[in-house]
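FAQ: What does the model actually see?

It sees only this:
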Amino acid sequence: MPGGEAAEEYHSKDFEWDQLRQEIEANPSLRYHFLPLHVNADDDDANSIGRSSSSQSLSGSSSSPSHDSEAWNNFHARHSSGKFFKERRYLLKEFPELLSCNDYSKVLEVGCGNGSTVLPILRGKESITVYSCDCCHEALERAQEMIDAADLVNVKQRFHPFLCDFSISGFPRWLACEHCREFILQKKHILLPDVKDKIVVEGLNGFSSMKERSCCLGGVDFVTLIFTLSAVPLHRMPAAIAACFSVLKPGGLLLFRDYGLYDMTMLRFEPDKKVGFREYIRSDGTRSYFFSLDTVRDLFVHAGFSELELEYCCVKSVNRRKGKSMQRVWVHGKFQKSM
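And it is asked to produce this:
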């Protein structure tokens, strides 16, 4: 992503989502995106635009967690140079709460990838601590390399990576033990000592866990889900969001940004890459879901969150090398856990 003034222009509202929706749904060549799985687009009886997710086939969601993790391991191994990713500097503009928060606030970055989200957060607030997880060790290694290369004072001490597939196992007990989660869910304030231990080098590639303690962090102040939930199979999303809710302190915020319905990348998928309702799998085995506002709202409100902001971010980008204009659609959201 571009930084500075370019980032501000890049992330402005460039077109209306409803107008794009009308154009896409009126295009016969794109009709297969709105049909149930395995239904021919030429079938006159197939009238499924706007059909709810509950009526769609989810057969593509049956891939194993180990297969999903391995696909992302291979992805990050291929893009290990770091040139594929840019710092998401726009995050502090879109989520200013990360700058105005209390000193020593704690952030759980879920699906940290190569660290492109973590680094601007650590740069922006010198007292903030970020606990970053990912389902693949290759991503965590890339993130650690990015943090080390930044060579900023105190950044390394405030960055704690760990291996975790939150959609399968939830989060480890050192974030919030069962006793503390029970109190968190009862909306009681918890004042617990901070954890200053570094990651214990044990388990898979040294990113498995922290030392067992008599206490835990007592939850976090922020959870960030930045282009992460779309990589989770649709049927596992409710459990994944519930896991985020369970470790967030009362009054804490979940900051969300992900692929939106009718994004350019969705329209590029061929029919054979469709594996479920608005759900696709790439040739490298990684998957992607494309969200409508209603889907996001239903998922988070059902988990217990209150909606603060939810909108489409519609951005027109130009590929100068190919001379093509690209219409990007993302969903931007902020959700709060009640006090």
